[in-house]
Amino acid sequence: METDSTEKYGLDLHCTMILDEYREMLPTFELMKTVVLDMLRKELSDRGIFVTAVDARIKTEASLAGKLELKGAKYRTLSDITDILGARIITFYTDDVDKISSLAEKLFDIDWENSVDKRKILDLNSFGYLSLHYICRIPKTLFFDADHPELNDWPFELQMRTTLQHMWANMYHDTGYKSGVEVPREHLRNLSRLAGMLELADDEFSRIRTSINDYRRKVQNLVADGNFEEVPLNGDTFKSYLELKPFDSLNKRIAAINQAEIHQASMLSYLQVFKFLGLNTLGDLDRLIKEEDGDAYKYAVYELGQTDLDIISSTVALQYLCLVRILKSGGGEKDLASFFEIVNGKSSHNEARARFVIQSASNLPFMKNK
């Protein structure tokens, strides 16, 4: 075995012995890989942390032989090589790297002396491979297999980086230092410029996410406090407003007409209706509910009281509120047909339905008083 390794890779006796130990330990590394990945994926899932990828690899024999050829004298045994097993977590945002590093610190025993935060060692005037590398061991308190106690003794490397950092590192390795060809300085300079752009993009993505989250929290607080006039009407704010269940009262009253069951349905299609009606803030929507509540209920009684409908949609209150507002604002068949097209999609029946609404609503008090 030693002779084969010496002849195949040209290694000295010491490095050949390390390579032979690697071959013997491969089943252990395969088991470690499974255990580490299972732990990481479960922890990320339990904490609701979304990442781009969680993966691991075992260094190939050829790769290890190359490393031993270059640096074999510094390693006494195979256990001194800390990246035989390498795990990697790729995140969407730079601030998630710190979150995941905290998770790793709670899970594993960290060899701080050999761990590296490459985010902190770059020169001020250079760009580069930004990532966090921890050298870890699996603590017995987290996992122990009596048949394989060696799993708790072997180190492995855990890399944490963003998607853009990962992309840059792969490209740099492919075009720069793993190609075996010296790259002209002008091309290396272009790589550095690109790395700088990606670094700025990484920071900007995190900043934008933080700003959006701050905005959402502000909106939620405004909605909870009833400060609707200060809140623009859009998808996010409408969802926050719906948490107050503003249509529940009218829905229940309409359902009681026929003792009907209310079927939950999305109201997001009405966002376009709000624009159609000129509603720009949650205050405008809140006034619509308060001002048209009574007439919307009367219209529902007039239409549904003549039926035996026993299931209604949770959008029914909003539908009657909007229909009443359109009718009271002088809207005709065209406006009503546009409303039905927005809510239900294009159909040859929309115009006929609009005519039916005008006809059926013509006998209601709010129309006679116009």
What does this structure look like?
The strands form 2 sheets. Strands 1, 2, 3, 4, 5 and 6 form a 6-stranded mixed β-sheet that branches. With 370 residues, the protein is an alpha/beta fold. The chain starts with a helix and ends with a helix. Helices cover 57% and strands 10% of the residues. It contains 14 helices and 8 strands. It has 2 domains: 2-207, Beta Polymerase, domain 2 (2-Layer Sandwich), CATH 3.30.460; 235-368, no CATH class.
Number of helices: 14
The fourth-level CATH homologous superfamily of the largest domain is: Beta Polymerase, domain 2
Query: What does the average pLDDT come to?
Result: 87
How far is the first residue's CA from the last residue's CA? 100 Å
Largest β sheet strand count, sense and barrel closure: 6 strands, mixed
Number of strands: 8
CATH fold group of the largest domain: Beta Polymerase, domain 2
Name the beta content range: 5-15%
Using the 3D structure, state the CATH architecture of the largest domain: 2-Layer Sandwich
Flag low-confidence runs.
Answer: 124-128
Helical percent range?
A: 55-70%
Radius of gyration: 33 Å
CATH top-level class of the largest domain: Alpha Beta
Structural class: alpha/beta
Order of helices and strands: HHEHEHEEEEHHHHEHHEHHHH
Integer tally of domains: 2
Shape: elongated
Write the SSE topology:
Elements: H1 2-9, H2 13-46, E1 53-58, H3 61-71, E2 85-91, H4 94-107, E3 109-110, E4 116-117, E5 132-137, E6 156-162, H5 163-177, H6 185-224, H7 235-242, H8 248-257, E7 261-263, H9 270-277, H10 282-304, E8 311-313, H11 316-328, H12 333-344, H13 350-361, H14 365-368
